[in-house]
Amino acid sequence: MAGFYHKIDININDPKILSQLFGKLDENVKLIEKQYNIKIKLEDGFLSVMGADEEMVMKADKILSTILKILINQKSIGIRDIEYIIEQNEKFPEEDLSKPYNHAIVYSSTGKVIRPKTIGQKRYVDAIGNNNVTFGIGPAGTGKTYLAVAMAVKAFKAKEVARIILTRPAVEAGESLGFLPGDMQMKVDPYLRPLYDAIFDMLGADSFHDLVEKNIIEVAPLAYMRGRTLDNAYIIL
Fold first, then answer.
1. Given this model, what pLDDT does residue 41 score?
2. For the structural domain made of 6-91, what CATH number should be given?
3. How far apart are CA 195 and CA 189, in angstroms?
C-alpha cells in the first residue's frame, strides 16, 4: 500500500501477547484495518502499520499501543473491548485508553477483577475516591450503583470505614406494587435489589448476611435516615 508508513516495536518473544493482539483468525487486526483503512503486518521484529492517510495510521498506532499496554498488564482482551477502545478514541483522543483496564477496584467473591470499563466510569471512580460526597448522574445500566458498591467494599476491606449504609427512597417506577407484606426489611427489599445484586457479587450472599446481622452493613429506606448520626460509614443512596 502506497502512502504514509509507520512502524512500532513490539515484543515478539511473548507468543501469548501476539496471539491475544491478533485474536482468533486475526479478527482483532482485521477490525482495526477495516476501521482505519490501513494494513498491519508483523515482520522482522516490528509491527508495521501502513496507510495512505497519516491521521488514520496514527490512530491505528494508538489503538495498537493501547491494546499492548492492556495485554502486558492483564493478558486478556476481546473483540468487544477493541470495538469500545476504537469508539472511545473518537470521543477522548487525548486520553490514555488503557487506564480503565489497569485500575482494579476490588475482587469479587469468585475472584473476578472489578474495574471501570470506560473513561467515564474511570472518572466517576476517581471522583468517589477523591471526594467525601459524589453525585453520579447517568442513564440506567451505566455502572453508577455497581461501581459505588465496589468502592464501598474496597474502603471497608481496607478498614477505611467501619460500616456500609445502603439506602434508597422507596419510590415506585411508574407502577404500584401495592401492599407489601412482612417487616420493614421485606418491604424495602424490592427497591434495594440493584444494591443487593452488586454487593452479593462482591461479598457473597453468606458474608453479606453475616455483616447485616452484625449491623456492619445496614439497609434502610431514606425516610428512616432523617436525624441519624453516621460516623465512619460509607453511605450509598
1. 85
2. 3.30.1370.10
3. 10
